[in-house]
C-alpha cells in the first residue's frame, strides 16, 4: 500500500488514510496496548460514530476542540474524528495546571474539551467561558454505580458527555467522511511559549502535517509491516506527526504507551515486536541504565530515532550497541509541523549532526546580512516548504516576524543557530533566544519569573537554563529576597508556591539567592552573565 503521492492534492483530509485502511484492509492491526488490539476496521467504525456524535453536537469546519488525554485509543479516535469533520484539534500538555489550561482554552476559544477521569481534579476547576461542554473518557472507572455517583457530582455548569455514550449512539455524519476541503484548512493548534512568556498557538493545516508525515515516512522507510511506539506524548507535535499520522499514512500499527517509563517501553518493544522508536537523548540514557542490568529481546527494532536535543557521541554508539539498531538523529520544530531534517538510514550518518533536509523541504543558513552562510560558518536556520505553519493564532505581528516573504517565497525564521558542513549536513549549535530546553520541551523563562514576582518575599528574580547531566538543560532561578523576608524566601517555599501555577517541568530545580540581578543599560536581564561561572 502506498499513501505518499509525488504531489499533494488540493483537497485532502488527514483522516483519509485511516478510513481508507478501514475500508480496504479492515483486519490490519491499527493499535496495540493495555486496551488490547484494535483493527483498522474497528478504529474506522469508532471514528465514524464519534464524528457523527460531534456533528450532532453542532461541531463543524472552523470549530476548535481540545484534547487532554494520555496516549490512549480515546486520543486517536477523537483526533481523527475531529479532523474528519474539519474541526481543529488543540492537543493539551497533560502536565499543565488548571490556570495554564485555562489560558490556552480561552485563547483558542475551544468549544469542547475531551479528557478522562485522570484529570478530574484539574478539570473541575476550569472557568473558561468559551467551553460549552466536557467529553469524559471513563474507561478507567469500574462499576456503573461509582461512575454515576461521580458524574452526578461533577460541579461544572456546562454540558457533560461520556465518551462511550457518544460512541454508543452510532450516529453517522450527514455525509460520508472524511469531508473534503482545502488543504490549508486548520488541523491543529499546537501551543508553545511565545516571546512574552505567554503560550501561542502554532496553526498547522492538513497540508502541513500531511507533507511532514509523508517526508518522515520516506526518510525512515516506513511500511505497513512497521510497528511504531508512542514514547513521545501524542499532545506533542512529534507524537502526532511522526508517530500517529505517519503510521496511519502507510497502514502500520501503533503501540500505545500511556506515559514513558524505561521499563514499560522496553517491555512493550519486546512484547509487541516494535520496529520504530523515537525518543530524546535523556530517555535513551534512562533506558540504557536498565539494559545494563537486564536484557530484553529488542531484535525487532530497525530504527532508533533521536531528536529534540543533541546526543553525545558516546551515547550514540552505546544505543546502537544495546538496542541493535541504527540511531537516526534529526531536527524539527512545531512551526514546521515537526521534523525537517534527518540523517539517512542508508548512507552516511554523522553523530552530532541532524542530517539533511527531508523531501520537499528547503533549508538555508543565513548570516546577519541576509546572505547564505558558506560551509562551516554559523548563521540562523530558515525553512521553506509545505511543512511551514500558517502562522500564530491571532498574533499577526509575531507571525510577520517569523514568516518572511522573500524573493524566492515564504521562509520560516527559526531562531536556531546552525551551520552546514561541506557535504550539506546540518549541525545545530545554539539558539538566538532564551528558551530553555527541558528534555525536548521548550520553556520560556519570563513565564516562570512572573510567578516568582507574585511571591510576597521575592523582590526580583531571573531564570535561565543550565547544563544537565542528562544531556539537556535544567532550570535555575536567581532570586533576590525582599529585605527582612529572607527566612520566607527559600527553595522549598518557592517550589511549593510555583506548583500552584506551573507544570512540574517548569519549576526550577536549582536556586541561587543573590543580592541583585545583572541588567543591561535598558534594564534587560543579562542571562549570559547568569550562566557564566
What's the short version?
This protein has 533 residues and is α/β, with parallel strands linked by helices. Helix 9 (237-250) links the parallel strand 12 and strand 13.
Tell me what you see in this structure:
Among the domains are: 195 residues, 3-Layer(aba) Sandwich (Rossmann fold); 78 residues, Luciferase, domain 3 (Roll), CATH 2.30.38.10; 96 residues, 2-Layer Sandwich (GMP Synthetase, Chain A, domain 3), CATH 3.30.300.30. Helices cover 30% and strands 26% of the residues. The chain contains 16 helices and 29 strands. The strands form eight sheets. A five-stranded parallel β-sheet has the order 5-4-6-7-8. It has a five-stranded mixed β-sheet with strand order 14-15-16-17-18. β16 and β17 form a beta hairpin. α2 packs across α3, α8 crosses α9 and α10 packs across α11. It is globular and about 65 Å long. It starts with 10 loop residues before the first strand and ends with a helix.
Low-pLDDT regions:
1-5
CATH class of the domain at 11-205: Alpha Beta
Largest sheet strand order: 5-4-6-7-8
What is the strand tally?
Answer: 29
Sheet with most strands:
5 strands, parallel
CATH topology of the domain at 11-205: Rossmann fold
Structural class: alpha/beta
Work out the helix count. Answer: 16
Helical residue percent? 25-40%
Amino acid at each position: 500500500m502506498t499513501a505518499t503521492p509525488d504531489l499533494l492534492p488540493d483537497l485532502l483530509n488527514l483522516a483519509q488514510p485511516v478510513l481508507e485502511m478501514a475500508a480496504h484492509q479492515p483486519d490490519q492491526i491499527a493499535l496495540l496496548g493495555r486496551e488490547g488490539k484494535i483493527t483498522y476496521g474497528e478504529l474506522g467504525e469508532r471514528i465514524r460514530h464519534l464524528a457523527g456524535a460531534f456533528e450532532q453536537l453542532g461541531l463543524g469546519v472552523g470549530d476548535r476542540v481540545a484534547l487532554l488525554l494520555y496516549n490512549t485509543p480515546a486520543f486517536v479516535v477523537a483526533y481523527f474524528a475531529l479532523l474528519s469533520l474539519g474541526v481543529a484539534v488543540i492537543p493539551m500538555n497533560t502536565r499543565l495546571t488548571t490556570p495554564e489550561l485555562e489560558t490556552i482554552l480561552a485563547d483558542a476559544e475551544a468549544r469542547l474539551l475531551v479528557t478522562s477521569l485522570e484529570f478530574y481534579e484539574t478539570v473541575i476547576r476550569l472557568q473558561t467561558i468559551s467551553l460549552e461542554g466536557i467529553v469524559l473518557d471513563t474507561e478507567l472507572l469500574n462499576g456503573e454505580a461509582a461512575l454515576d455517583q461521580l458524574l452526578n457530582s461533577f460541579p461544572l455548569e456546562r454540558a457533560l458527555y461520556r465518551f462511550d455514550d457518544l460512541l454508543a449512539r452510532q450516529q453517522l455524519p450527514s455525509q460520508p467522511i472524511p469531508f473534503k476541503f482545502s488543504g490549508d484548512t486548520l488541523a491543529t493548534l499546537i501551543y508553545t511559549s511565545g516571546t512574552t512568556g505567554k503560550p501561542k498557538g502554532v496553526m498547522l493545516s492538513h497540508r502541513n502535517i500531511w507533507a511532514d508525515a509523508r517526508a518522515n515516512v520516506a526518510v525512515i522507510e516506513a511500511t505497513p509491516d512497521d510497528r511504531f511506539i508512542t514514547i513521545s506524548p501524542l499532545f506533542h507535535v512529534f507524537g502526532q506527526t511522526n508517530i500517529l499520522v505517519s503510521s496511519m499514512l502507510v497502514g502500520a500499527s501503533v503501540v500505545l504507551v500511556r506515559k514513558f517509563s524505561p521499563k514499560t517501553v522496553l517491555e512493550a518493544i519486546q512484547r509487541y515486536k516494535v520496529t520504530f522508536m523515537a525518543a530524546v537523548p535523556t530517555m535513551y540514557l534512562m533506558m540504557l541504565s536498565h539494559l545494563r542490568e537486564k536484557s530484553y529481546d529488542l531484535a525487532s527494532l530497525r530504527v532508533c530515532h533521536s531528536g529534540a536535543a543533541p546526543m553525545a557521541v558516546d551515547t550514540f554508539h552505546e544505543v546502537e550497541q544495546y538496542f541493535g539498531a541504527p540511531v537516526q538523529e534529526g531536527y524539527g520544530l512545531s512551526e514546521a509541523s515537526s521534523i525537517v531534517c534527518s540523517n539517512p538510514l542508508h548512507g552516511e550518518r554523522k553523530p552530532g549532526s541532524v542530517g539533511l533536509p527531508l523531501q520537499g523541504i528547503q533549508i538555508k543558513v543565513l548570516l546577519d546580512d541576509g546572505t547564505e552562510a558558506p560551509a562551516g560558518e554559523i548563521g540562523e536556520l530558515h525553512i521553506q516548504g509545505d511543512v511551514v505553519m500558517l502562522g500564530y493564532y491571532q498574533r499577526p505581528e509575531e507571525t510577520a516576524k517569523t514568516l518572511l516573504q522573500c524573493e524566492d517565497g515564504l521562509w520560516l525564521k527559526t531562531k536556531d543557530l546552525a551551520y552546514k558542513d561541506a557535504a550539506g549536513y546540518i549541525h545545530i549549535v545554539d539558539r538566538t533566544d532564551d528558551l530553555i530546553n527541558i528534555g525536548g520541551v521548550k520553556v520560556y523563562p519570563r513565564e516562570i519569573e512572573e510567578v516568582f514576582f507574585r511571591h510576597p518575599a521575592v523582590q526580583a528574580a531571573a531564570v535561565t537554563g543550565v547544563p544537565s547531566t542528562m544531556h539537556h538543560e535544567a532550570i535555575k532561578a536567581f532570586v533576590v529576597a525582599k529585605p527582612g523576608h529572607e527566612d520566607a524566601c527559600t527553595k522549598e517555599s518557592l517550589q511549593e508556591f510555583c506548583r500552584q501555577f506551573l507544570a512540574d517541568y517548569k519549576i526550577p530545580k536549582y536556586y541561587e539567592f543573590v543580592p541583585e540581578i545583572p541588567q543591561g543599560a535598558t534594564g534587560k536581564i543579562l542571562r549570559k552573565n547568569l550562566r557564566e561561572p
